[in-house]
DNA sequence: AATAAGAGAACGAACGTTCGCTTTTTTAAT
DNA sequence: ATTAAAAAAGCGAACGTTCGTTCTCTTATT
């Protein structure tokens, strides 16, 4: 009597999710057929359906994975600041990371389709909604730490500010999908620029004193922001 | 010998586009079947296909119509400022209009799906791209007029600023689709808030002097911005 | 009479999923 | 160690459904 091998199951699921992500990024959820995922995963439909019971389940699993990674990264940053790191460093690092993983045509397209999907698919919407709220609350926590360090005005509603900044990042991501002239560097520069406009005058002074540029045109990409340069 | 009646053709196309828009807003492009559009337009497939040769053609036509309307509205606003209207009034009016026509769950969903569609459908992408660039250039013109009125810093790249503001509005629209707690009023308030952060100190003084609030928490919705209140 | 306009059944392709069968692997008895 | 049983794993053709589109026939209009 043969028993299931959990490790093999895990490997197979990994293989399928990787294949699915590859396809979805290039063609989107609906334009990707199961046959294409099977081909990429080097697996027959019969085999694939042993590990996921539907296409929808694959979409949801892949998205949950993405969400989890984003939240995990933000959590790390927040912990760092709790443990004494500089708030502006953390923001800078976060933005760098977001730019690296999300600021591309493919990610923009996937992001757009995820939002469409959330509108039509209740299971997907729930997963996304939970992740969104968790991210927002964590981000608000980080901004709150920014307040403690005197970088953000006391009277800002950090939860709302978090939501707005997230929406802005999304807007940039989507614009990137849509307009190939809209570059990652432009988005990073402007997110830095407008974020700086929400800094306290103390935080602005700190940046100005260190880098000798008026804060209103500070450029995360081309000036040295506390914490160093963008790689590449 | 019977002749084609151009008026009837126009009416029929109108009927189809209205039906399509209704369906697309609720269910999206791909989830809406031709049968549903036919039902809503009270027309058989045979009849419908006399006026549009494919579903794609309907999608493109509907989107072009939307784009044209948005551009036309912006053009009017820009002309007004050219003819001596106050720049901040125009921005306020524009935002009011955008909020009324785009800040809803359905519009957000449609916007997301349009971006997805543009990624996969070259014809759609071209139409959207042309419209986007036209909108951006017009908006930059308007911002340039804002410079002339001393409301925006001389050294701002208005074309880039236009792109960023458009991306931000898109981000809000999409967030609204996704998160039912994210209200139109919140989006309007914050767009106003952050727009104000790009105003010159003269423009800020103008707002402060008239409304006695520090510009950094100015609220387009709850304070009287030059040009009046939001309806409803 | 001629043809535009419309109706609706039917077609055909695409696609997610299933099903019957084969192969591989594990287990346990010899 | 060998082997046979049992079930897991895998394969791929086929199924059933959905849906965009077409085709034929009828009706309306000039």
Coarse morphology of chain A: elongated
Distance N to C terminus of chain A: 55 Å
Q: Uncertain regions of chain A: pLDDT < 50 for 5+ in a row?
A: 211-232
Structural class assignment of chain A = mainly alpha
Helix-strand sequence of chain A = HHHHHHHHHH
- Overall radius of gyration of chain A: 20 Å
If helices are DSSP runs of H or I spanning 4 or more residues, what is the number of helices of chain A?
Answer: 10
Helix content of chain A: over 70%
> Largest contact between protein chains?
A-B, 43 and 43 residues
Mean pLDDT of chain A: 85
Number of strands of chain A: 0
- Major β-sheet of chain A, in short? none
Query: How much of the polypeptide of chain A forms β-strand, as a percent range?
Result: under 5%
Please identify the oligomeric state. Answer: homodimer
Description:
- The structure is a homodimer of 232-residue chains.
- Chain A has 232 residues and is mainly α.
- The first copy, chain A, contains ten helices and no strands.
- Chain A has helices at residues 6-27, 34-41, 45-48, 55-82, 87-102, 105-120, 122-148, 158-178, 184-196, 201-211.
- The longest helix of chain A is centred in the N-terminal third of the chain and has 28 residues, at 55-82.
- Chain A is elongated.
- Chain A starts with 5 loop residues before the first helix and ends in a 21-residue tail after the last helix.
- Residues 211-232 of chain A have low confidence and may be disordered.
- Chain A binds chain B through residues 27-28, 30-31, 105, 108-109, 112-113, 115-116, 118-120, 128-129, 132, 153, 155, 160, 163-164, 166-172, 174-175, 177-179, 182, 186-187, 190, 194, 197-198, 216-217, and chain B through 27-28, 30-31, 105, 108-109, 112-113, 115-116, 118-120, 128-129, 132, 153, 155, 160, 163-164, 166-172, 174-175, 177-179, 182, 186-187, 190, 194, 197-198, 216-217.
- The first copy, chain A, binds a DNA duplex (30 and 30 nucleotides) through residues 1-5, 8, 12, 33-35, 43-50, 53-55.
